[in-house]
Amino acid sequence: MSKNSDEKKKVKVLTKERTDFLPLIRFREAELAVAGQSVTRTDDPLKVTGKLKFGADYLQEGFLHGKILRSPYPHALIRSIDTTEAEKLEGVVAVLTAKDVPGRNGFGAIIPDQPVICGDKVRFVGDGVALVAAETERIAQEALALIQVQYEALPAVFDPRDALKDDAPKVHDKGNLLSYDKLRKGDVEKGFAEADVILERTYQVPFLEHAYMEPDMVMAVPQPNGTMLVEGPMQAPFTVRRNVAPVLGLPINMVRCRQIHMGGGFGGKEDSPIDLGCRAALLAYHTGQPVVMALEREEVTLQTAKRHPMIMEVKIGAKKDGALVAFEGVIYDEQGAYASLGPRIPPAGGSHVHAMVMMPGPYVIPNVKVDAYLCYTNHPYGGAMRGFGAPQVHIAHEQIMDELALDLGVSPMEIRQKNAFELGSDTATGQVLDQSVGLKETLDACADAFEWDRRFKETGYIDEERTKRRGVGIGMGWYRTSVGTMGDACGANVHLHEDGSVLLYTGITEMGQGSFTVLPQICAEELGVRPEDVRLVQPDTDLVPESGPTVGSRSTTLMGNAIIMAARQVKASLVEAASEMLNIPSERLEFRDRKVYDRDNPGTSVEFKQVATRCMATGRRLIGQGWWAPPAPSLDPETGQGNPYFVYTYSTHMAQVVVDVETGEVEIEYYVAAFDVGKAINPRALEGQIEGGVAMGLGYALMEEVVVQDGVIQNTNLQDYLIPTALDVPDIQPVILEMANELGPYGAKGIGEMPNIPATPAILNAISNACGGRVRSLPADPEKVFLAIKEAGGPPKN
Asked: What global pTM score does this model have?
């Protein structure tokens, strides 16, 4: 090795913070006072009284209104733009085109390939070609209509398989294949040769809209010192800042991003605030005035990212006893016009690679081959949505497992019991699961709660007219904690005040998942105070440490560990002071419920706030900073082998449905969802996550689809884009198991994305069990269910 490479290695070691993981998880379950309690969410009172301010509630007096002129073509060259008439309109303050971007004319969470303003070409219906700032929203809309754009339409491509052809229209100059990734384990040809049964199927899923209640909005406010303040509901304020700064040609420290409360995100508000933030900031930069840019519902659907549609070809082989021996899959993953969060961030980041890793399912299979193609098309672009590539492939592997079970003559329960991961299993990437593996336990617990054996036997017609049949189905799943990149880390600051109150600074955002309650719980547990003693500071890039995005089910685990590390720095001061005050050795001190007491003599104690006061009076440290990153991920790009994520959450869902075999209508009667979450920091909040996730999975199964025809979305509002209502969602029985994660705060691991993943295949499998037909192209609306029954030869006889 050369001298230079040795020096680089030394620098890397010296700058990497060493983390001793074990102290993070040393706790006695019985001594936990706050973690594990169903504390009332801190944002509940403000929400139920209507006092919580969302974006539209902020006073915008003095703000200009920003609007975007969008392309009506899916693929076209821009020959000319004339803004003269729009600029003459009274009340218009600025009309911007591509030439007005002072810095980088591009943004994106991974690759900045989406123009802030298109200059020469548009790539989907919704691409921005001009921006307007006006005194009122109405004037801004009128100005858009006065901008004259001459386009030259180009041939377009709308299917990822077509996009790979040599003669396909090129969405980008470098070609339509954005990413090709592969996974190889064992000898898949040998595996299929040894199989007694082989099945091949193709499954297809459409674009999905997040359908969060609050439409996107951003406010950009120039500051007197030249800083640009960008505020809005956003999941990743640091990523927004990382994009706005180069667009304006400013250093990062001259852009400040602040999160305001969010009316739903589900992954969508990781991308869209980048888009709106760059454009609103650009208008504010040119006008020197604050600008608000707020989208109507139809604009949200046209402009923002969707869940990736996929075509998935799957082949599976098994022995007669149900043991899996080979799996082969091909994913045609449609990225749409821009890269967003699709492509790989080495070694295992990005939705595409995640889908590839998840595709063989949570099963032990000795021989695996997956080829995954991520393709540009002239459709809206795919981005993050709850599950991040996992829901799609779970629909494929969970359905083919049921189809395989039927072919082998075994029950869906038996084939999963035989092949599911357990402690010590190795995954398709060769990762040995050496801790916190509760998949089979969720299967057993779910079956007990659901009464699977009884319900499985009681399927069949339920009415004398023989029009309605009952069926049951299983969906199993797994999902990572963390995002699989080398830069996946979280920072937290803990400030203790002399009266014992605490300020907690983190960059994790709240979108309804409960982080603003769970994170203070962890801080309170570690310091020995009550949750109400900890006030969490709203994420603000000028105030809180870098925390990465609020995605990937990483918040509780990664940030929780960072908070514990920060709190322990403060606690060291408290221990010193309390030891002096009580005149006992520090190792005998316990912190609990606002008191510090002698473990050997609990009657001897001192108030927590008195210890905090003494720390202040004696000049001890009252500020702690924690920074935690999981063990480094790995994934060989040539073989797909490695340890892409450091721990996984596991789940089993069971659904009971009734299908009207004459109309294809489906009703879900009963539902149980079991999860291994490591440790439930707030069980009631966790149950809310589960219920919401199942509802999303139900929508994916039965009704949701962004309908696109010739590149134009046909259902842009919530009247035409159907999502489940309360009337569609059955009672959901959550079952929580705790197989402690050795690297999580008090054993916790991620849960946010998991609940919707097995829900869709559980419902699809129940439909098939009920009616005999199999819907392999979603959604399973009444028409497709009816056609599936017809394709299967009609309703079952018995």
From this structure: 0.95
